[in-house]
Design brief:
It is built from four helices and 14 strands. It has helices at about 35-45, 70-80, 110-120, 145-155; strands spanning about 5, 25-35, 50, 60-65, 80-85, 90-95, 100-105, 130, 135-140, 165-170, 175-180, 195, 200-205, 210. Helix content is about 20%, strand content about 35%. By secondary structure, the chain is α+β, with helices and mostly antiparallel strands. Strand 5 and strand 6 (about 90-95) form a beta hairpin. The protein is elongated, with a radius of gyration of 19 Å.
Length: about 220
């Protein structure tokens, strides 16, 4: 019996949500470039933002005593933009920059892979997602950063291992990464201090590298 999960343009119940403040915010724009607008809004939330180079339009408006989230969603919708938050950085793209991806799984089911991405805060149900256990395939569509994150996780989660550890780390560009092995020194925004135990170089605790729980496939 085929088990198919179909999710398309519904609430992002499992994706990491930017922790917007509830404090009201006032902003006036007069032919302000959207890149500057989003930079100011993200700065008010102390969140890094990456705006696509293809976004070259301007915005004009007086947003009086609105929550930052309400302002953001209004501007994004009116300008045909899409966004993805990876838990550290907010990425904003045009709708025509959406990409599609396909994952073929060997050692885990499509539904288990989906649950793992939900648990890790990678899966964003704002975007098209179809998973089939009988075909061991997942098809999805979304912003470039979302597609890249899913493809990277598939390489880590579909490996046949007795023990799987998933490392979450932030690179020098502020982008959150997932991998089944430790990042190489120099790739992260902090130095990886190491100690030697039984001839094996082991990472010490870092506030920018997190070892996530071993996925429990069913």
């Amino acid at each position: 019996m085929s088990v198919v999960l179909y999710v398309c343009l519904v609430s992002g119940a499992f994706a990491k949500d930017l922790p917007w403040t509830e404090k009201t915010y006032t902003h006036f724009s007069d032919q302000e470039p959207l890149t500057d607008f989003f930079a100011a809004l993200a700065a008010s939330q102390k969140t890094p933002v990456v705006v696509s180079e293809k976004i070259d339009t301007v915005v004009s408006g007086y947003y009086k005593k609105m929550t930052p989230k309400a302002i953001f969603l209004e501007v994004v919708k009116s300008n045909g933009l899409v966004w993805y938050f990876d838990g550290n950085t907010l990425f904003i793209n045009r709708e025509d920059e959406m990409q599609a991806g396909t994952v073929s799984l060997t050692n885990t089911s499509a539904s288990a892979f989906t649950r793992s991405l939900e648990r890790l805060g990678v899966l964003d149900h704002h975007y098209h997602w179809v998973a089939s256990d009988i075909d061991q395939m997942v098809y999805f569509k979304g912003p470039e950063q979302f597609v890249t994150a899913v493809l990277a996780m598939s390489k880590s989660l579909d490996k046949k291992q007795k023990k799987t550890s998933i490392y979450k780390w932030v690179d020098k560009k502020g982008v959150t990464n997932f991998s089944s092995s430790l990042p190489e020194e120099g790739k992260t925004s902090v130095d990886l201090q190491r100690e030697v135990k039984n001839g094996v170089r082991t990472p010490m605790v870092s506030d920018r590298i997190v070892v996530l729980d071993k996925p429990k496939y069913q």
